[in-house]
Structures are given as C-alpha cells and as structure tokens.
Amino acid sequence: MGFGRGSSAQPRGRVVLAISSVIGMALGIWSVAHYLGPSPAVAASTRGQYMCAETGKPFTLTITPGMTLPVRSPHSGKNTGYPAEFCYWTSDGNIRKEPVAVLLNSYLGKPGPTFCPDCARLVRARNPQPVPGHPPPTRQEYKHFEEE
Ligand SMILES: [Zn+2]
Prior knowledge:
The chain folds into two domains: 2-37; 41-147, no CATH class. The protein is α+β, with helices and mostly antiparallel strands. The chain has four helices and seven strands, in the order H-H-E-E-E-E-E-H-E-E-H. Strand 1 and strand 2 (58-62) form a beta hairpin. A three-stranded antiparallel β-sheet has the order 2-1-3. Strands 4-5 form a two-stranded antiparallel sheet. The chain has a two-stranded antiparallel sheet with strand order 6-7. The longest helix is centred in the first third of the chain and has 35 residues, at 2-36. The chain has helices at 2-36, 40-46, 105-108, 139-147, and strands at 47-52, 58-62, 81-83, 85-89, 95-102, 114-115, 122-123. The protein binds zinc ion. The site of zinc ion has 7 residues, from strand 4.
C-alpha cells in the first residue's frame, strides 16, 4: 500500500508542474501582447495630428467617440488642441518629403486665410494632397490675386 501510494504521487507532481509551466507561458505571451499594444495599422487609424494653439507645438492624439474641440494639449495642459492641417509645399513650389503641421486661423477665431509658417503658402481646411507643379498661392500671390 505504502509503496503504491509513493509511486503514484510522483507522476501527479509532474502533472502539476506541467500545468503551472503552461500557465506561466500563457501569462508570458499575454504580457508581451499587452505590452506591444494594438498593431501599427490600428494605431494609425485612431490617432490624429493636433496642434496646440497656445504653444504652437504639434502632438498626436488618440481619437475617441464623443471627443469635442478643443482637445487637451499635452504642451499647455489646457484645452488648446485643434486638428492640424498639413502643408506639403516648400517656398520654391516643390513638394516636401515631410508635411508641416499647420493650425488654421479659423480655429483660433482669427480672420483671413491661413498661410503656412514654413513656406507662406495658403493652407485650407482638409488641405488637398499636393499635385506636382500646382502649388497653392503664397501670401504675396494671394494678396495680389485679391487686389485684381
Ligand atoms: Zn508650407
């Protein structure tokens, strides 16, 4: 009896050990997946580029349903964040490799059109994608056009 009990206890111990290592592996996989977070494609679709009106600095924000403007800016710590438009141009009329984030005057309650602080070209709401050879007017060109 005593001998039989001893021999059956040993495999049972191994089973317990095997189960705990499986749980350990599962927890390890879960924590890695948790750490990595959502895939880059998912992250890109829920994050937007914003501008802080107080500091003029850009930041990215995860968009959630029911979000209202202005959003909280990490730069000012206040609700001074507005969606950024992008300027795709250089001052000499070529397309930039990296677009510049621009804050529109209309969000700030300022009158008149918005010009890019980098190239001084017109930036509109939902600024269109760049078409080679057709840059938007600069501040100077725009004034000239209005005067005619
Ligand atoms: Zn520009």
